[in-house]
Design brief:
Strand order of the largest sheet: 1-2-3-4-5-6-7
Helix content: 40-55%
Number of strands: 12
Number of domains: 1
Bound molecules: zinc ion
Structural class: alpha/beta
CATH class: Alpha Beta
Largest sheet: 7 strands, mixed
Strand content: 15-25%
Distance between the termini: 35 Å
C-alpha cells in the first residue's frame, strides 16, 4: 500500500509535465507500448481530457488480429487501425467491446470499414445497451458546449484554478471543437457475437480468454486475458489514477476485483490510465468501493436522503491515496468516483438498479 501511495504522489507530481507534453498532441493520441511479441497496448497515462478515450489492446496472431476496445472515437479508431497496419498485413478478425460506454464501443466503425468481416464481440448486456433505442450516440454531437466546459471557462476567468487544474482546463477548451466533432461523427457498431460468461478466441497461435465475472463496474463488463503472455486488460473495472464509479455495482465490483487478482498477470492494461505491473491498485480500489458501499448502507438505514448521505461521507483518509493531494486529481476523484459511486450505492441500498438499460448510451 505504501509503495502504491508513493507511486501516486509521483504520478501527481508529474501530472503537470505530462499535461505539458500532451499539449503538443491532441487528446486522441495514444501512447503505444509493446507488451509481448505481437501484443501492443495503446493508453493515455493520465486519462483526464475529453473525450475519455479508452485504452486499447492489439493481439496479432498467425491468422488474424484481435482488438480489445477500439479506443473511443472515429479518429481514435483510425489511429488504432493505422497502428495495426504498421505492424501486420493480417486482417482484424475480432473486436471485443469491454462495456457499452462510448469510450469503449465507439471507434469500431472505422476498423469495420476496413475489415467488414471482423466479429464484434460483447457481453449480452453491452449488446442490448448499444442497440437500445434510448442510446444517444447519434444525438450527442448536437449538444452545445457541455456544462463542464462552461465550468472550465468560469474557473479560468475567476483565476482560482491551481496550476495543474488551469493547464487541464486550458487543454479541454483548446480541444473542444475537435471533441465535439469526434463525438458528433461517432457511430455505434452493433455486436455480432454475444456471450454471457466466457469465450475463448484463437487468432492463430494466440489465445485470448474473454470473461464476464458478474456485475462489477457494469452489468456487462468483460475482461481480456492472455494466459500464456500473462497479460490482462480490465476495461473500466480498473481505471487509474482515479477510478470511474458511474452506475456501478459496488458489492459485485469487489467480487470481480478479487477474482481478477487470482489471474497471474505481469502486465495489466486498465480501461483508462497507465499500464500496471502488479495488483496493488486493485486493493486500493477495493478499499474505496467497500468504504463507499458500507457508509451509504449505514446512511440509508438511518433514513438519510441522498444529499444528506453525500454530506455525511468523510473521504479525508481515502481521497489522498488516489490523488496524492493534487487538486486536479481531486476534481477527477470527486466527479468520476465519489459522487457517482455514492449515487449508485444509494440506489442499490433502496432496492433500485444502479444501471438500468435505458441509461445506456448516455
Ligand atoms: Zn471507460
Amino acid at each position: 500500500m505504501r509503495r502504491f501511495f508513493h507511486a501516486c504522489l509521483i504520478a501527481a507530481s508529474s501530472l503537470l509535465s505530462l499535461l505539458a507534453a500532451a499539449r503538443a498532441a491532441d487528446p486522441l493520441e495514444l501512447e503505444w507500448a509493446k507488451l509481448a511479441d505481437g501484443v501492443w497496448a495503446g493508453v493515455r497515462p493520465v486519462s483526464l481530457s475529453a473525450p475519455p478515450t479508452s485504452s486499447t489492446l492489439i493481439v496479432i496472431g498467425d491468422t488474424g488480429v484481435f482488438v480489445f476496445d477500439p479506443a473511443g472515437t472515429p479518429l481514435a479508431g483510425e489511429r488504432v487501425l493505422a497502428k495495426i497496419r504498421s505492424l501486420t498485413e493480417r486482417p482484424v478478425t475480432h473486436i471485443a467491446i469491454s462495456n457499452w460506454r462510448g469510450a469503449h464501443s465507439r471507434g469500431a466503425d472505422k476498423i469495420v470499414e476496413a475489415f467488414p468481416d471482423a466479429q464484434i464481440i460483447a457481453h449480452e448486456f453491452t449488446a442490448r445497451a448499444i442497440e437500445n433505442a434510448e442510446n444517444t450516440f447519434a444525438q450527442r454531437g448536437d449538444k452545445p458546449k457541455t456544462a463542464s466546459n462552461n465550468r472550465f471557462e468560469k474557473a479560468l476567468a475567476g483565476g482560482e484554478a491551481a496550476a495543474t487544474t488551469r493547464a487541464y482546463f486550458e487543454e479541454e477548451l483548446a480541444h473542444r471543437d475537435l471533441v465535439e466533432r469526434e463525438i458528433g461523427a461517432s457511430r455505434p457498431v452493433e455486436p455480432t457475437r454475444i456471450f454471457s460468461d466466457a469465450l475463448s478466441i484463437d487468432v492463430g497461435g494466440r489465445k485470448i480468454e474473454l470473461r464476464h465475472m458478474g456485475p462489477g463496474k457494469s452489468h456487462g463488463d468483460i475482461i481480456a486475458y492472455l494466459p500464456k503472455e500473462r497479460i490482462l486488460a480490465t476495461g473500466d473495472i480498473v481505471v487509474s489514477p482515479t477510478p470511474f464509479g458511474a452506475n456501478c455495482h459496488p458489492k459485485g465490483w469487489v467480487r470481480v476485483l478479487e477474482q481478477l487478482k487470482t489471474l497471474p498477470a505481469d502486465k495489466i492494461v486498465p480501461g483508462h490510465g497507465a499500464i500496471m505491473t502488479d495488483t496493488d491498485y486493485f486493493d486500493l480500489l477495493i478499499g474505496a468501493i467497500n468504504f463507499a458501499s458500507d457508509e451509504v448502507a449505514r446512511a440509508v438505514r438511518k433514513g438519510m436522503s441522498l444529499e444528506e448521505t453525500k454530506e455525511a461521507m468523510d473521504w479525508s483518509e481515502m481521497e489522498p491515496r488516489f490523488t496524492g493531494g493534487d487538486p486536479l486529481l481531486a476534481i477527477a476523484f470527486n466527479d468520476r468516483f465519489k459522487t457517482p459511486i455514492v449515487e449508485a450505492a444509494y440506489k442499490i441500498a433502496n432496492g433500485e438498479d444502479s444501471e438500468p438499460l435505458e441509461l445506456a448510451g448516455r
